[in-house]
Amino acid sequence: MGDVETGKISVRAEGARALASYLEEAIRTGRLREGVKLPAERELSEEFGASRGAVRRVLADLKGRGLITQAVGSGTFVLPQPNAARAAVGAEAAAAPASPHEVVQTSPAELMEARLLIEPLMPGLIVRYATVGDFARMLECIERSEAAQSIEDFEQWDGELHKTFALATHNSFFLRVLELTNEVREQGEWGRLKRKSLTPERRSEYEAQHRAIVEALRDRDADLACELLTGHLKQIRHNLFGG
């Protein structure tokens, strides 16, 4: 019995270290941006296999170092980090392909064709590997996008949601693809097309589609999620380019 208990303690300690490492790295690099609400202690405990007490100690340490803030009744939120944007840019540059100009030269039409080929492959992995924390981040992105007061803010959280899909596959290939996608989305041509095409009615449709996709993923229904995601991307393409 003593050996088994020791094993449990060892596993939980590893979980606490993994949680601390993940949160600090994500906040420092800007993957978890200012104002993002972290999952509840219970969800973090389940996702990382750490005890509730260990989760509280990790959060207390991060709070003491000015990475997060906690409000009773509201939750835990990421604080602004002066070096986060710089670190994120540095990380992207380090991971960039040998010919970075290829990304700059990608047109919005080419991007949509690639997304239609690649993103529908993700639901199969998401329903298999996604955690409680992954779904919490998806819902956070949806809520932020629905509350956005500008097209730019909506577009940011729309992109974060699709990036969260990639993260939930727990496959580094899809994460890299979505990072490249977001680089193209930040270009002026994409923004011009999106501002021109994004009417209030279409935004409402996108928001409903986002919720339906996430609901299917939470139900572990890969076929439905794939169908909904494909339809969502096709509608974006139609709204951007017609035809």
TrEMBL record:
Q: Which organism is it from?
A: Paraburkholderia panacisoli
The molecular function terms of the Gene Ontology recorded here are: DNA binding; DNA-binding transcription factor activity
Quote the PANTHER family the UniProt record gives.
Answer: TRANSCRIPTIONAL REGULATOR, GNTR FAMILY, UXU OPERON TRANSCRIPTIONAL REGULATOR
Superkingdom of origin organism: Bacteria
- tRNA-binding found in the keyword field: no
* HTH gntR-type domain boundaries: 13-81
Transcription among the record's keywords?
yes
What protein am I looking at? FadR family transcriptional regulator
InterPro entries with a match to the protein in the record: GntR_C, TF_FadR/GntR_C, Tscrpt_reg_HTH_GntR, WH-like_DNA-bd_sf, WH_DNA-bd_sf
One Pfam assignment:
FCD
Q: Which residues form a coiled coil?
A: none
Q: Where does the UniProt annotation place the signal sequence?
A: none
Q: Which UniProt keywords apply?
A: DNA-binding, Transcription, Transcription regulation
